[in-house]
Amino acid sequence: MTTPAHLLRPVGRVESSLTDPATAPCQGDEGAPQAWLVFDEAYLPALAGLRPGRRCWC
Predict the structure, then answer these.
(1) Angle (CA) 16 17 20, round 5°
(2) Residue ranges of the alpha helices (H) in 2-55?
(3) Four-point Cα dihedral 49, 12, 27, 17, nearest 10
(4) How far is CA 33 from the centre of its chain?
(5) Is residue 35 within 8 Å of 15, Cβ to Cβ?
(6) E strands of the chain, at which residues?
(7) Does the pLDDT at position 58 exceed 70?
């Protein structure tokens, strides 16, 4: 068995009022409700200064 070169860990999640993926629109401009990002508190210091519209290189 080989060891993966990279380990991915979620740092947050997307939340919205949608409860059933089958009824979700395919595109945001098709009547999707507002959605927001919720980050794990452990990563908040790394996000300091990040603002909407700014570029983020990961």
Answers:
(1) 100
(2) 44-47
(3) -110
(4) 15
(5) yes
(6) 12-16, 35-39
(7) no
pLDDT in tens, 12-53: 999 999 989 888 888 878 888 888 889 999 999 988 888 888
| Side chain identity at residue 31, one-letter code | G
Q: Classify 10 as helix, strand or coil.
A: coil
pTM: 0.62
| 12 φ, ψ (degrees, to nearest 5) | 180, -165
Instruction: Give me 49's structure tokens.
Output: 């200064």
C-alpha 3/C-alpha 52 separation (Å) is: 36
